[in-house]
Amino acid sequence: MFKKARLLGAATVAMIVIGLIFAAFPHPQEAMAGVDNGHYGKKAKYVFFFIGDGMGMPQISSTEIFKGTLDSTNPMNKEKLNFAAFPYQGMQATNSANTFITESAAAGTALATGHKTNNDVLGMDPTKSVAFKSMAEMAKEKGMKVGIVTSVSLDHATPGAFYAHQATRKNYYEIGQAMVNSGFDYFAGGSLLAPDGAKKDKQNIFELAKQNGYTVVNTKEDILNLNASSGKVIAISPVLAGEEALEYDIDRTSALSLADFTRQGIQLLDNPNGFFMMVEGGKVDWACHANDAATTVRDMMSFEKAIGEALKFYAQHPDETLIVVTGDHETGGMTIGFAGTEYQTFFNKVNKQKVSFEEFDKAINGYRQMMGQGQASLEDWLPYLAEKFGLTELTDYDKSRLSDALAASMTDPKKRNHDPNSYLLYGSYEPFSVTVTHILNQKAGIGWTTYAHTGVAIPVFAQGVGGELFQGYYDNTDVAKKIMNIMGVQYQ
């Protein structure tokens, strides 16, 4: 009896101690909920939000290994990306309102507004009847300057989520109208997909922009001369690749980079009331859709350099600045590891690729027009594959795959895209191009599972004012809520 009482007494004491601990240190989720509802004290005057479209941990780790092979003869050297060294790190779930595998409109809406929506819907609820206000719109209302920078077109899903509200991300003309009516101070990077409307019968968006007080610049000299007295600016790269986007960094020569547009944006936006800037590395996603690892890691390095510009600013304003880096989803099911290489990787092979799949596709298209269906020969391509991809040691199996893919590339793209078996092998891309990059990637020890997105969780990196709030595992909508809170605007 006495022994049982002693045990009960010990249990009671333990419960009291645990209760006191929990009173002093609330459950992390409860504490974070309080933070999201506006209880974080210090506010950030300058907020950078970097979104690597399609960027998950495989893209980050692959780039770190790739950079290590560039800077050392040590095969185990790995060079950490600048944002991967941020002191605060977490993970976000990416599902949209209607599927576990999101696309960029739904993911962008979550990251920009703090609300879930269905795939393809931009800045609105799943019923397409309620518009969600974005953190960029809130920042502008607060009196901060706002900048939107991207390596793809300015009316694409991720940038559009910060200023537009459309039932579908494909309403490019309406998204362009929203852009020039936003009053934001700086738009930069690619151009617009439908500046004159889908039927080219609308008033030009850039003319509307000028009527709304914007200066539109598209020369390197004018862009590099932008400063705090430039007013509202739309800066379009003088060199554009497919779909009105910047060139892939692997193909870029003297053209402006994402870092250039970020640096000029900082100079233009800096003011006593502070600023918000969203910068998207959009072509990481496109390269991953095509399963092109070399192009992916080069654009990841370009994205890192853009973040480096924010870090320079942070060094001057460490007590007033927040930098958040994340992805909207992972693309391609990229992984470090392939059955043919088992536990080994050979990322030095990736560095032998000299052109993106997009540039390679141009060569294939020219060859198809010249040779016609049924006249292709793999032997014609072997010197090119050696020079541009470093593929000098091809097995009989490699050659068989390449010959089949080349034959498929010689058929009319409209016909082959209706073949489900063709999609499983090549997606919607040039069969020969995809097969070449697959073979090179596999020899390097890199694998892919899809030509679309995946549903895995995505890392979040933060540094500066309020950065500690980004630790833990939470929803993508919480990323927006945390930034809004630290910026001093109210989630709606």
Radius of gyration, whole Å: 25 Å
Q: Give unreliable regions as ranges.
A: 1-38
CATH architecture identity of the largest domain: 3-Layer(aba) Sandwich
Strand order of the largest sheet: 5-6-4-3-7-1-8-13-2-14
**CATH homology superfamily name of the largest domain:** Alkaline Phosphatase, subunit A
The beta-strand count equals 14
Give the number of domains: 2
Considering DSSP H and I runs of 4 or more, what fraction of the residues is helical?
Answer: 40-55%
What would your notes on this structure say?
- The chain is an alpha/beta fold and 492 residues long.
- It has 2 domains: 39-334 and 452-487, Alkaline Phosphatase, subunit A, CATH 3.40.720; 336-447, no CATH class.
- The chain is 43% helix and 13% strand.
- The chain contains 19 helices and 14 strands.
- The chain has helices at 2-24, 28-39, 57-71, 104-113, 135-142, 157-160, 172-181, 205-211, 220-224, 258-269, 283-289, 293-316, 357-371, 382-389, 396-409, 413-416, 420-426, 431-444, 476-487, and strands at 46-52, 88-93, 145-150, 186-189, 215-217, 233-236, 275-281, 321-327, 330-331, 335-336, 446-447, 453-454, 458-464, 472-475.
- The strands form 3 sheets. Strands 5-6-4-3-7-1-8-13-2-14 form a 10-stranded mixed sheet, sandwiched between helices. Strands 9-12 form a two-stranded antiparallel ribbon. The chain has a two-stranded antiparallel sheet with strand order 10-11.
- The chain is globular and about 65 Å long.
- It starts with a helix and ends in a 5-residue tail after the last helix.
